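Hi R.,

Here's the chain you asked about this morning:
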Amino acid sequence: PDTSSGIYKIPVEITYLYDEIETKNDLISIIVNSKPELSISFEDSSVLIKGKENSLSIRITNSGLSDVKFVYISIQDISGIKILSEKEQYIGDVDSDDFDSVEYNIYINPTTSNNLNLPVTLKFKDATNKEFTETAILNLKTYSLKEAQQLGLANKPNYFVYASIGLIIFIYIS
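And here is the predicted structure, written out as tokens:
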């Protein structure tokens, strides 16, 4: 169970009797592999606010026993979201029991629904160079600026600071 995925060559010696005792030496190959297990999730540390540019962070986690390589991630266009960064991004290798993240810049229309389903596709290869393609749907929760402020997810403008600065400037000028 500790063996890394890959192709291993093992020396073999075969001794047999056929008219006389003969010995042959050769190599056999053994493939150690397991099905890759990648999962995709939205890192909800950032709040998605309608009517402005947002940073969308997506995490790819490898919970399988084998490493994956040549990982590409792409997101598809959906109604209500404009993708401002590259739709397809190269991640590289994701080792077993590890993760990697990728950032997208998106604009969410103000009239968009509060719940969006974003299709995300991963393309990658396992240790034997077998190609895989997996698609998942990320459920994104979006808020208007007012809703985010009411829920404490976004900072409200600090009018007291602005009024204090204005008052100090007014007193200084007078």
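One quick note: The mean pLDDT is 87.

Cheers,
M.
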